[in-house]
Amino acid sequence: MSQTSAESVQALFDRIAPVYDELNQTLSLGQHKIWKQMAVKWVGLKPGDQALDICCGSGDVAMLLAQKVGAQGRVCGVDFAAQQLEVAAARQVYELNPETTAPIDWMQGDALALPVSDNQFDGVTMSYGLRNVMDIPQALQEIRRVLKPEAKAAILDMHRPKNPWVRGFQQWYLDNVVVPAAKRKGVTSEYEYIAPSLDRFPTGEAQERLALAAEFSTAVHYPIAEGTMGVLVMTK
Ligand SMILES: C/C(=C\Cc1cc(O)c2ccccc2c1O)CCC[C@H](C)CCC[C@H](C)CCCC(C)C
Ligand SMILES: C[S@@+](CC[C@H](N)C(=O)[O-])C[C@H]1O[C@@H](n2cnc3c(N)ncnc32)[C@H](O)[C@@H]1O
User: Fold this and answer.
1) Ligand 1 atom nearest 31 alpha carbon
2) Tell me, what CATH number does 226's domain have?
């Protein structure tokens, strides 16, 4: 799927929902949980805060936010793929203790037209979502719109590393480990989509410029995992 549309991306994530968590865990050797924790830490939330996770998928980051802001806080998770939201809601029941974690509102909606109010959130996260939206400047404007003044957002995603050896390893790993593992689960073309999506994704520096153009007051991109991943941290 090299030509994409919002509808085809939504259908892709609905199709892979039953195998998504297992593949992320095995293919990242468990590392994706650490990268997600880093993104949540960079938002700087405190107990009682309201947090939003955009493109929440099966709920990993929204559930980390619910632990961070505690039972007095509130979390919204927004995604347009209904099958992913079903997995998220089911996981919340058996993975979170409602006495110590915030309630989570799982909302079906579009990252480019968020179903929430202006200036509502103390912090926003987006994990592996930005690379999949059709209009990155619009997604950044929406994040800025829903943040309270001076609040932060952290955007985690996969990147093409600058180092040619690491880049070569990344492509080898996608071709020889990720796609074959996906093939065994019957979702080959869905995981073949990752490589072209990386090629068209703006670099960390370009993302900083896009965030400043969307009128964030600060924007810093931190490469992690040898530049195969990165977190863009922005302040409204
Ligand atoms: C959690 C991760 C990715 C989420 C993700 C994002 C997408 O855009 C997709 C698109 C289509 C299908 C699936 C996804 C998707 O799952 C990150 C880790 C999972 C990756 C599948 C593994 C990639 C590994 C990298 C090449 C780096 C290798 C380092 C490893 C520690 C050896
Ligand atoms: C790779 S998954 C990431 C899920 C989760 N955040 C994680 O880190 O595991 C990307 C998610 O973004 C969602 N998504 C992509 N474009 C979207 C959009 N325009 N509006 C809402 N959700 C979107 C997909 O449905 C999918 O669940």
Assistant:
1) 31
2) 3.40.50.150
Range of the domain at 28: 6-235
Residue 187 Cβ inside 6 Å of ligand 2? The answer reads no
156 in ligand 2 pocket by Cβ < 6 Å?
Answer: no
Has residue 29 been placed in a domain? yes
Query: Mind listing the pLDDT tens digit for each residue in 27-47?
Result: 999 999 999 999 999 999 999
Number of domains in the chain: 1
Asked whether residue 34 is assigned to any structural domain, the reply reads yes
Q: Give tens-digit pLDDT for 70-117.
A: 999 999 999 999 999 999 999 999 999 999 999 999 999 999 999 999
Residues near 158 by Cβ (< 8 Å), separated by ≥ 6? 128, 131, 194, 198, 201, 228, 229
CB of 128 closer than 6 angstroms to any ligand 2 atom? yes
Residue 203 included in any domain: yes
Question: What Cα–Cα distance (Å) separates residue 3 from each residue in 55, 132, 137, 190, 200?
Answer: 20, 12, 19, 13, 11
| ipTM, two decimals | 0.96
54 Cα–ligand 1 center, Å:
18
Q: What's the pTM value of the predicted model, to 2 decimals?
A: 0.97
